[in-house]
Amino acid sequence: MMILSGDPPRSRALTLILVVVIAGLAITPLVFPGAKAMNVATKICIFAALVASYDLLLGYTGTVSFAHTMFYGIGSYAIAIALYSMGPSWAAVATGVVIGLPLAMLLALAIGLFSLRVEAIFFAMITLAVASAFLVLASQLSWLTGGEDGRSFQLPELLRPGTVLISRGTLGFELNGRVLTYYLIFIASAAMILALLRVVNSPFGRVLQAIRENRFRAEALGFRTVFHLTYANCIAALVAASAGMLNALWLRYAGPDTSLSFSIMLDILLMVVIGGMGTIYGAIIGATIFILAQNYLQALMGAASNAAAEAGLPLLPGLLHPDRWLLWLGLLFIASVYFFPTGVVGRLRNPPRKSA
Amino acid sequence: MRGSSPRMTPECTVTLVRPDDKPSDDARMTHTLETRDLTIRFGGHVAVNRVSCIFRPGELTAIVGPNGAGKTTYFNLISGQLRPSEGSILFDGQDMTQLSAPLRTRAGLGRAFQLTNLFPNLSVEENVRLAVQSESGVHYDMLRPWMTRKDLIARADAILDKVALGGRRNVAATALSHGDQRKLEVALMMALEPKVFMFDEPTAGMSIDEVPVVLNLIAQLKQDASKIILLVEHKMDVVRSLADRIIVLHNGQLVADGKPAEVIASPIVQEAYLGIAPGKSAA
Hints:
- The complex is a heterodimer.
- By secondary structure, chain A is mainly alpha-helical.
- Helix content of chain A is 75%, strand content 3%.
- Chain A has a two-stranded antiparallel ribbon with strand order 1-4.
- In chain A, helix 3 (68-86) crosses helix 10 and helix 9 (203-220) packs antiparallel against helix 10.
- The mean pLDDT of chain A is 92.
- Chain B has nine helices and ten strands.
- In chain B, a hairpin with a 2-residue loop joins strand 1 and strand 2.
- Classes of the chains: A mainly alpha, B alpha/beta.
């Protein structure tokens, strides 16, 4: 249990879902080696870690930040620029990491010390302003970032799709550079989520929850809350930047739309809320539900619409037309927030009847 | 009527303030808490007005005065929730005026709040455990799970037993009755093991059978001659039974200071606090 830091899922249904999701992600390259399935699985891994790091801020300290995609973007661009300018080598990857992580942390430290002393709304506004400035900067500094086009780059030899380590004949599946990259991302994301679980269940994490509950009282107990909040902000920024690096490695590209846009910020917020704030496990559930719906709802509705048309049902084929998938996605989110105000994890841990 | 009385001018206080309570340099050598000309203004309103006072170890001082006299504001100034407009606070010979609330707590100033001020959705045990954790200096440890620090949990449980909350340790603080929340508030302060205990109306709103638990606790703390205890309390019988000394605040000023019997008997207190006018001539 110590790998989970003494904070197990505490619900049989939740444990089952988590085992299914994690096992599914672990075997995706073996069972569904197609490009789409692999992309979806990778995105779930990366976003689970990214959302978990945002949950550290929103769920555990009650701090609203809009700069999370900025840190995600710093990681993405650090890898992209390093590999673009230094060529596809491991030294370039290392350079990207060595520059990107401290940069993200220092920026988080500066924002935190500057604005976490005062009311939470001020911090939210500052992060919004800094993130907007960073987005403009990234699209204007074309010589460095490639502007709106972003930067495409090549990966080191080992991680390229063309590199076949074990051919299909020996094991029944092909272990190539792409699969290796996937497992690198899978393991790195899992490690980050476990690390976050450790942080939130540490004495430090307990103080974060105390600050969320009653910052005034936490101060009166002798905790200098500015430092706790700032450190939490730094940890979240480090994980977000790392997730951005993994994302860049997978896409072999970094650009404003894939790493910095505010629509990603909205997605993160939705995933935290759907999964359940202040739980870490909610990040895995939220990311899985959201990304699966985003990628497969349209196809599912197409099939349902056709089936309804063949059965001769009135109205339904139109309602379920694949073009209306965003409407249904929206309704799905409204319904999930309405019926699970504490998120899926909160609901599974405390069923409404039993807890009363 | 009270505010306009000529008896409330500061000159009247001189007779009751004991000469040895004047700020002195040798006082800084011992473990005393001292406020010097402590003043805070909110706009034009002077909530605490040049209050100078020394509190000594082994002494329980009751601070009394009518509502709005500045008692809680005075506490807020001492424990650091408010910064004074003028004046200073010295503790153990150290000037604490510029220190933030957390640093004053770490220096040994403990505070139990008047309006219950807890972590509502955390368990009773966790509320106290957090205070114990702070007292043990475990602030930024993020590498091990909190439950591996069993020593902190055990200390929290021991304190909960002392305030008769041991049976409710797994309940959320918000689910406790008002009286139990008051007890938890006191437990948080005790967990900090402070040198100065500041009780702000610890028995307010408690049912009669709950009051003795808290009063016994305070009486026990009094046994320790190294502790300074400040108590804001309205119930005169409580004050009479516990206090070694009473100071009276009125309109933000220190108007009386002395032994309980003499202060309670003084006309200033009779009028200002107990609301008994000494006679029509004074009004």
